[in-house]
Amino acid sequence: MNKVIITFYGRVQGVGLRVFIAQCAGEHNVTGTVQNKPDGTVQAELWGDKDQLAKYIEISARGSRFSRIENITTVWGVADHAPNNFRIL
What we know:
Elements: E1 2-11, H1 17-27, E2 31-36, E3 42-48, H2 50-60, E4 68-78, E5 86-88
Parallel strand pairs: 2-5
Antiparallel strand pairs: 1-3, 1-4, 2-3
């Protein structure tokens, strides 16, 4: 099981990005969480197959209709467990 933490930078809070990220997760069989961070970024912590996660990153990097993603960072790892669903925190 693979894990990736994605941080989205730009106009990413208050523009429906977390809901968009959750919808993308459901479409790509990815579990995890997404939350607004105090520094103005949005961070998603995801678990799944490496190929699914890579495709997910590509699609989610486009952002929601009203967001403007200027940059994303990813940190990959291996997880020994994963949540059963996807939650917006």
